[in-house]
Amino acid sequence: MNASSFKTSRNDYKIYENKQENQTLDILIIGAGVIGITIACALLSKGHRVKIVTRDLPFEERSEQCASPWAGAIWYPFEDEWNETCKQSYFEKQTFEVMQRMKGDTNVKLDYLSQRFQDNLPIFSDDILAYSRTRRVLDQDRISETLKIPWWKDVVVNFCEIDERVQDFTTFSLQPTEYLKRLLDHYKCDRLTFHRGTASSLARAKEQFLPNADLIINASGLGARYLADVNDKLVMPIRGQTIVIKKQSALEVNQGDDQIQSLFVEGTRDGHDMIYVISRADSDEILLGGSAEPDSFSTLPDKDQIQRIIQGTKQYSHHLCADLQKSITDPSIIHTGVGLRPGRKGGPRLDWQEEKKDINGKQILPPVIHAYGSGKTGFQVSWGVAIEVMRMVEEHTMVS
Ligand SMILES: Cc1cc2nc3c(=O)[nH]c(=O)nc-3n(C[C@H](O)[C@H](O)[C@H](O)COP(=O)(O)OP(=O)(O)OC[C@H]3O[C@@H](n4cnc5c(N)ncnc54)[C@H](O)[C@@H]3O)c2cc1C
C-alpha cells in the first residue's frame, strides 16, 4: 500500500460522468481469497452488483496457489516489514475494530469509515471469530525498542507485560475458511454472481464474464504475476510451512479466558523459520508454524523444516496452557501443509488504474482497482483494504 495510493483528489476524476451520484455499479472482481471476498461484501453492502471470477474457492478446497485457507488467521502485526507510511498499521487497526463490531462488542469506539459498515455487519459466534489469549515472547537480546513496545499494544485487548521478554494480550483468531464462507453467506443476494474459472487477462475477463463492467477489482493475489495485462513481477510467493496437530484433551475445546491459547516467538528466526502456535477455537486442531520464505515457489512439505517446527514449538510450549503443552510434547500430526502468501517486493499494491482506450477511443479496459500483495497479513488488513476500496469507488464516481 504505497503512500502514493492515497494522493488521489476528488477533482482529478470524473469517470462515470454519465452516471448519477450514488448510482450502483457493475463490478467484476478477480479472486475469492480474503481480499476479494471482503471487498465484495463491502461493495454489496453499498448496493453495487458484483461478479466474482475465481480459479479457487477457499472454502470448497485447498489449493497451494490460494493463500487464504492456509492462514493461521490471527491478528498479529509483523512490524519488522511495515511502517506507518505504508498504512499497514492503519488498515490493521481498522480491521481489528470491524472484527470487534462483528463480535457485537459495544464498547468499541469506531472511526467514521468503519462506522459505515455498522448496520450490515454479521454477528459471528466464538468458534469462527474468537478472542484468543496470546503470548508474545521476545527471545533475543538485540530486539529493537519498537519490537519491545509494539504500536498495537493499545489496539489489542488487555496488553500486559509479564516481564521484559514476555507479553500477554487478547487478539482475534479466525477460522479462515468458515469465516469467509459465513461472511459471504451473510452478504449473498441476487446482486452477487460467481464464476469458477481462470482469467488470462483483465481485459479478457471483462469481455468473457462481464462485458458491461464499470470497474474491475484485481484481487488475484499471486495471480497478478501471471495476468497478461498486469504481469507484475514484483509479486512473489512467501512460502509458509505449517503442521496441524490434534488436541489431546477435550478441555482444550473450552479454553478459559485466562489460558494462553496462542504463542508467537520473536527473534528466534533461523533463516526464514519462525515459531508460532495457534489453537483453533472451533475444532480439535492446533496449528504449528512455521516459515516465511520469500521467492520460494515450492509447495512440497520439507521434512527437516517440519522437524525444526516441532522442536521449536516444544522448546517454548511451557508458555502455553497445560492442555496445549501436553498436545505439543507428544504431537499427533493430522497433516502438514504449505501455503504461498502473495507477497510483493516494495509492499502491497492498492491503487486506482485509469480506464484504457484504443486509438479509436474504444474502451479496452474500464478503471481497475488493484488490491493484491498483502503477504503475511491478508486477514488482519482485509477490512482496512475493503474500506479504502470503498473510498476510492465513492471518490471516483462522484461528479463534482
Ligand atoms: C501459513 C500461512 C499463515 C498465515 N497466517 C496469517 C495470519 O495469521 N494472519 C493474516 O492476516 N494472514 C496470514 N496469512 C496470510 C494470508 O493468508 C494472505 O495474506 C491472504 O490469504 C491473501 O489473500 P488474497 O485474497 O490476497 O490472496 P489469495 O488468498 O491467494 O486469493 C487469490 C485469489 O485469486 C484467484 N486467482 C488468482 N489468479 C487468478 C486468475 N488468473 N483467474 C481467476 N482467479 C484467480 C485465486 O484462485 C484466489 O481465489 C498466512 C498465510 C499462510 C500461507
From TrEMBL:
Keyword Oxidoreductase among UniProt keywords: yes
Residue spans crossing the bilayer: 27-45
GO molecular function list: D-amino-acid oxidase activity; FAD binding
Superkingdom of this protein's organism: Eukaryota
Keyword Protein biosynthesis: no
InterPro entries reported for this sequence: DAO, FAD-dep_OxRdtase
Domain FAD dependent oxidoreductase residue range list: 26-388
Gene Ontology process terms (BP): D-amino acid catabolic process
Cofactor(s) recorded in Swiss-Prot or TrEMBL: FAD
GO cellular component terms attached to this protein's record: cytoplasm
Keywords: FAD, Flavoprotein, Membrane, Oxidoreductase, Transmembrane, Transmembrane helix
Family: Belongs to the DAMOX/DASOX family.
Listed name of the protein: Nucleotide-binding domain-containing protein
Protein species of origin: Meira miltonrushii
